Each structure stands twice: as structure tokens, then as C-alpha cells.
Amino acid sequence: MRSKDKIAYFYDGDVGNVYFGPSHPMKPHRLCMTHHLVLSYELHNKMEIYRPHKAYPVELAQFHSADYVEFLNRITPDTQALFANEMVKYNLGEDCPVFENLFEFCQIYAGGTIDAARRLNNQLCDIAINWAGGLHHAKKCEASGFCYVNDLVLGILELLKHHARVLYIDIDVHHGDGVEEAFYFTDRVMTVSFHKYGDMFFPGTGDLKDVGEREGKFYAINVPLKDGIDDNSFYRLFKMVIMKVVETYQPGAIVLQCGADSLAGDRLGCFNLSIDGHAACVRLVKNLNLPLLVTGGGGYTKENVARCWTVETGVLLDAELPDEIPENEYIKYFAPGYSLKIPSGPMENLNSRSYLNSIRQQVHENLRSIQHSPSVQLQEVPPDFYIPDFDEDELNPDERVDRHTKDKQIQRDDEYYAGDNDNDHIMDDA
Ligand SMILES: [Zn+2]
């Protein structure tokens, strides 16, 4: 095990201020709640906190089509009625509404994941966290499932500049379809998604038999599950699959999407994981000791999302967190118990032992077809795609972040190569 991991954490308070609409289940405010809970446990003293750069349109177009990026940049709530055809073409409107500051929201969460990947690439940290990221449904030319820009794909593309093979793991209750699709034909990324499948559950893809095609055949793994899966069943299967995958594939870096809608009691989910069960998966991946990029994802019971990602920040930092939630700006959301952990619920597990066994066997069989790691050799590593110019705007981080992180939060790409000169704030934890 590494003696002490160096953790970079990305947050911009502006990301929590956008509003999808009154009846929309996606509440970006959960990101503010998470951040304040992280601060209340004083976890900011154990990691480096950065405000991410806002991803440039040209960076988003590394995956997305230029016309789609341009449209996202241009459309506003006031003008959307004038672009009815484009709204349909880009799947905007219902699940993916156009709201005030939509594009900036995308730039921030994508910028966080891209910055996280770049810091990992330059070995400035061992683990990078961006809870605002993880929007795994977005497609090259369209929005999907509350996701507009696929930051995970952009982060993986960045990691591929330095790593021959990248492993993507997704524990959101929904299938990680956008990421799988982006890398379906390549063996340089293995995608592994654990999700609810069947009963017309969104997005409807992620069957066990979907394993990738052409060069990518057997480099996509789907673990389709039924309602009510509990900690024991989930973790046992997760451990078996991930250990076998890592042994077989030998990735150079891992991206872990920690969607919290797989928790018990989620407004949209149907699994029965406790926070401990969810976090156990994060711990297992951390203990693989590979460069690790961790993102958020779904999660629609927002006080539980904040709890979950705070606990997982603690897991990544090897920090023990007392169960009683400390005073913080959003303490009222955690009433009446004010406890950090949530247990499983009284839900029937529809995943029988034999069903889970059959999944395990099939995954093993598919992995056997790979036998050993692919012969992808590292070629000349291209430079990071874009080094932005100095921008005054980014020197004015929002007040709340500023109070806690002072001047450490601004990290520019052009500093990545100058060595790390802000070690003074890293506390040695016991
Ligand atoms: Zn989800």
C-alpha cells in the first residue's frame, strides 16, 4: 500500500447554484451540501482543494460534436422556443431542460474532471475527486438522462494520453451507457457498469451480453441487477468482478463513477445499499493503489448524496468520521437524527444467489477470452491538449470556498509543470 495518498479535490460553488426546475429530480444543490459536509468534518485540511478551470468549448469538442457544443453554448431559456428542431435533435427539453447558466455548469463539472485527469497524469496526486462530475449518459451529439456533457469520457481521453489502458467502473444505479458507447470499439478502455436492468428502467441498455465489438470485444462488462440488491450481494459480486478485471486487464489508471442513486431510499433508484456498502466498493478500488479519478453521478435524495460522498471522501483520505454530523450551513437537512450513515431499508432482494452466480460465471468466461492484457504499447505521449491563457475571472472564487481554502484553490495548467509549491497546507494525518 502507498504510505500516504495525495488527494486533489475539485469544487466550484457556482455549480450548486443552477436550477433544473421545480419538479426535476436533479438538484445541483446537493453538491453544495456535500462540500459543506466535507468542510464540517475538516477534510479540507487533509487534501488539496482546487477550483477547476471552466472547460473550453474546444476541450468539450474532444468528444462532443462541435455543433452540439456550440448549441449548448448559445441556447438560453428565453431563446429555446425559437430552436424547436434543434431542441429535438439534441434531446433537450424534458429530462434535460435548458436553464440559466447551463453551459457554464457544463464547463465547470467537465473542467473539474479534466483537471483531475491532468493532475493524475502529471503525478501531482494519487487520487483526484470531482463530485460534480460523473454525468455518464451524455452522448457525442446529444444530451441524455440529465447529462449534457460527458465529463467522464473527456477525463478518460485525457488519461489515455499517459496510460495505455484505463479502467472505468460505474456503481450508479443506471447503466453507464454514454461512457460504454464512447469506448465500445476499443481495448484501451474497459468499462464495467453495475446497474439495474429490466422493467424499462432507464436507459434500457447494459445487458450482460453486450460486451463490446471489434477491437473492443470483451472490453465492456455489464452487470445487470434486479431491485433490492443489498450490501452483501453487491459487494461480493463487485469484488469478484473488479479483482478479476484488474488482474486480467492491468489498467494504468481507474475512473470510478460513484452515483449515489444506488443507495437505499433514493428517489429514482431501486437498490438497497447502505452508505457503508456503497463506500466499501470505493475502499476496494482505492486499495488497488492505482491512479484514481473519482466522480459523483446520480443521486436524488440529496441529504443522502451529501452523506455518501462525504463518507467516501473520508474513505479516500483514510479518515475516520464521527457519526454525529457537525454543525454546518445545511445541518437542518440531516434532521432528525443528524447521523452520517444511512442503513439499508426493509426491501426484498430480487437477485437470487443463482442469478448472481450466473452473472459471475459469464463475466469470468468473457474475461478468459482476453487472457492477458492487450498489447497496446505506449506510443509518444502527446502534450495536454489545451493550456488556457491566464484569466482574471478565475481569480475570484466564490466567497464560501474562499473562506476555507484561501489561495490554494486556483491551480492552473501552466503550474502543473512547475512542480507543486503548495505543500505547506497538507496536514499529516495520524
Ligand atoms: Zn443514475
TrEMBL record:
**Catalysed reactions listed for this entry:** N(6)-acetyl-L-lysyl-[histone] + H2O = L-lysyl-[histone] + acetate
**Per UniProt, what is one GO molecular function of this protein?**
histone deacetylase activity, hydrolytic mechanism
Q: Which cofactors does it use?
A: Zn(2+)
Please list where the region (Disordered) is annotated: 389-430
User: What EC number(s) does this enzyme carry?
Assistant: 3.5.1.98
- Family in the record: Belongs to the histone deacetylase family. HD Type 1 subfamily.
Q: What is this protein called?
A: Histone deacetylase
